[in-house]
Design a protein that fits this description.
alpha+beta, 9-stranded antiparallel sheet
């Protein structure tokens, strides 16, 4: 009888640990996105720079095309998929950068399609929300304190 109780406890604890372990493995670990925040300029604005690589483009709807020049409208893509809130509502002032900036070298950017640039108030806490598919509940959030930051790929945490 004692052996039966011991085996039941062992198998029960194994089942619970398997259940917890599988739940941990299935959780969303977030999305890795590279970005930098430039030091403030004379107008009190910092430049937020986000590297958009092929992996980000594969996870999202493709950028719309400008009908007059037959080029992707990357500013519209950034406004759709990256929401930046600096405390006074979302900012929609994205524009397309090249393959490098003062804070991000071409080697750091890697196989970037472009770098999205937006002006944010310097020293203000910033919340960046990444929506891979607009209209879906899936979103990823990064909180920044507003200080200048060198380029680094950081994990945006799942927030859904």
């Amino acid at each position: 009888m004692t052996k039966l109780i011991v085996w039941a406890l062992i198998l029960g604890s194994l089942a619970v640990s398997l259940f917890v372990g599988i739940g941990y493995m299935n959780r969303d670990a977030g999305r890795l996105i590279g970005f930098a925040v430039a030091p403030a300029d004379e107008n009190g604005q910092s430049e937020l720079q986000i590297v958009v690589n092929p992996l980000v483009l594969m996870q999202c709807d493709p950028p719309p095309y400008k009908p007059d020049v037959y080029k992707p409208d990357y500013a519209s893509f950034m406004n759709t998929h990256f929401e930046v809130d600096a405390g006074n509502g979302p900012l929609n002032n994205w524009r397309q950068g090249g393959f490098k900036t003062r804070q991000i070298s071409e080697a750091q950017a890697g196989a970037a399609d472009f770098i999205g640039l937006a002006h944010v108030p310097a020293g203000t806490p910033i919340t960046i929300t990444y929506h891979p598919q607009k209209g879906e509940p899936e979103k990823y959030v990064m909180q920044l304190d507003g200080s200048p930051q060198d380029f680094k790929r950081r994990t945006f945490d799942a927030a859904y």
